[in-house]
């Protein structure tokens, strides 16, 4: 694979090393498994995905992509981490998940190939791992149909997020491997909103995600100071 546009080789290597643990619910990816039902319900509540053509950008081992396919969507998951994609493909075979395919390609390359081809595009927990997040946002906007929806999730850049998402989650509680996130790559909601507007996407909803490490409970709220999600829509008539 030569398509490495807008990707950090160190980030790809980081997730490739952990690829075999994607579907271990007690592994480093446990938080992704625990927040996945919340993310899926939020997405499906805004843009019902059953029977829709959905793209999951930065799909990793396929946790969200697989669950969206089980909701009845026709899903394509894309990533540049080959090992993670192979794990996703193997899990789909083992779990007999229909309606999901995976491909090693960047969002920018796919946007040039298949513009306006998807009803819904998701890009979750990925923007903070690429050199140029605005480029990914623009590609997502190009990939969705007029009237379609694009969903993003990422982490705020401020003192609280540094203490909670990096020091707390990675170094004190061990919820994530150390070095998973780099503070300077985190993205403020105002920055992500600006990327979306520049890409021609209208902001429709913003939600925060909170966590109680003692009870291991996650919930959505209006607090976007650490983890947050944004729902955007491309202007035009829904097809």
* CATH T-level topology: Rossmann fold
Helical content class? 25-40%
The CATH homologous superfamily is termed: Vaccinia Virus protein VP39
Strand count: 8
Unreliable stretches covering 5 or more consecutive residues: none
- Give the distance, in angstroms, between the N- and C-terminal Cα atoms: 34 Å
In CATH, what is the class? Alpha Beta
Order of helices and strands: HHEHEHEHEHEHHEEE
Based on secondary structure, the structural category is alpha/beta
Q: Walk across the major sheet and give the strand order.
A: 3-2-1-4-5-8-6-7
Q: Please state the second-level CATH architecture.
A: 3-Layer(aba) Sandwich
- Rg value: 16 Å
Strand content: 15-25%
| Principal-axis shape | globular
The major sheet is characterized as:
8 strands, mixed
Number of helices: 8
Your description of this structure?
Pathway: Cofactor biosynthesis; ubiquinone biosynthesis. InterPro entries: SAM-dependent_MTases_sf, UbiG_MeTrfase. It is an enzyme of class 2 (transferase). O-methyltransferase that catalyzes the 2 O-methylation steps in the ubiquinone biosynthetic pathway. Strands 3-2-1-4-5-8-6-7 form an eight-stranded mixed β-sheet. 37% of the residues lie in helices and 24% in strands. It is globular and about 45 Å long. It has helices at residues 9-17, 30-46, 63-70, 82-94, 107-113, 133-143, 159-172, 189-198; strands spanning 53-57, 74-79, 100-104, 118-124, 144-155, 202-212, 217-221, 227-233. The protein is of the alpha/beta class and 239 residues long.
């Amino acid at each position: 694979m030569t398509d490495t546009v807008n990707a950090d080789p160190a980030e790809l290597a980081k997730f490739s090393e952990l690829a075999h643990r994607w579907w271990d619910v007690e592994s480093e990816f446990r938080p992704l498994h625990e927040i996945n039902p919340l993310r899926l319900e939020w997405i499906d509540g805004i843009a019902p995905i059953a029977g829709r053509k959905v793209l999951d950008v930065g799909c990793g081992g396929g946790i969200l992509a697989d669950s969206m396919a089980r909701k009845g969507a026709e899903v394509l998951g894309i990533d540049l981490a080959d090992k993670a994609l192979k794990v996703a493909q193997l899990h789909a075979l083992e779990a007999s998940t229909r309606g999901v395919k995976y491909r090693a390609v960047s969002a920018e390359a796919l946007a040039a190939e298949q513009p306006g081809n998807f009803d819904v595009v998701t890009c979750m927990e990925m923007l903070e791992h690429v050199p140029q997040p605005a480029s990914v946002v623009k590609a997502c906007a190009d990939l969705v149909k007029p009237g379609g929806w694009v969903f993003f999730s990422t982490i705020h850049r401020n003192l609280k997020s540094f203490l909670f998402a990096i020091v707390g989650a990675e170094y004190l509680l061990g919820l994530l491997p150390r070095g998973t996130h780099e503070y300077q790559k985190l993205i403020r909601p105002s920055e992500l909103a600006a990327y979306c507007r520049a890409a021609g996407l209208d902001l429709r909803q913003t939600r925060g995600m909170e966590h109680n490490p003692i009870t291991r409970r996650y919930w959505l709220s209006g607090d976007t100071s650490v983890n947050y999600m944004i729902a955007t829509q491309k202007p035009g008539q829904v097809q």
